[in-house]
Amino acid sequence: MNNIVLCGSMKVKDKILEVKHSLENMGYNVLLPTECMDGLPKEIASRKHFERIISKDNSTILIVNEKKNNIENYIGPNSFAEIAFAFFYNKKIYLLNDYYKPYIDELLGWKVTPLNGELNNIKKNTNC
User: Fold this and answer.
1) What pTM, to 2 d.p., does this model score?
2) How far is it, in rounded angstroms, from Cα 76 to Cα 117?
3) Cα gap 23→39, rounded to integer Å
4) pLDDT tens, 11-40?
5) Which residue stretches of the chain have pLDDT < 50?
6) pLDDT over 70 for what percent of the chain?
7) Cα(34)–Cα(48) distance, rounded to whole angstroms?
8) Which of 61, 84, 101, 111 has the fewest Cβ atoms nearer than 10 Å?
């Protein structure tokens, strides 16, 4: 089964949970950054989530890049690190919304796909 690993700022935790439920209703198995959500120390939470991202059972990550602090399509440093990690391990990478302009060169170069809010576009691009 193709799992989708969700990533994003814990300040948009409610949106991450909303996306999880939507994807599950579409038939996907969804993995969350549970350690981050549970408030574990950053070092432990990040290591656990990176392990989840690179697992051979997980071929897709989805960054929930919501508006944050009045910045559209925000991708924070931790999510950007997760994108880089996923790229290095040849995972398919999606953004829930559009590209975050400060990282546009890397996102384009790493073949990150923006969904522009349309989760149904994942099925067009994966083998689920």
Assistant:
1) 0.92
2) 18
3) 24
4) 899 999 999 999 999 999 999 987 776 778
5) 127-128
6) 93
7) 9
8) 111
What are the beta bridge partners of residue 96? none
Structure-token pair, residue 40: 């574990």
How many helices (H) and strands (E) the chain has is answered by 6, 5
Tokens 């170069």 correspond to: 109
Q: How far is it, in rounded angstroms, from Cα 72 to Cα 96? A: 12
Residue whose tokens read 């392990």: 51
- pLDDT attached to residue 128: 46
> How many Cβ atoms sit within 10 Å of the Cβ of residue 115?
18
* Look-up of token digits 């690993």: 5
38/1 Cα distance (integer angstroms): 26
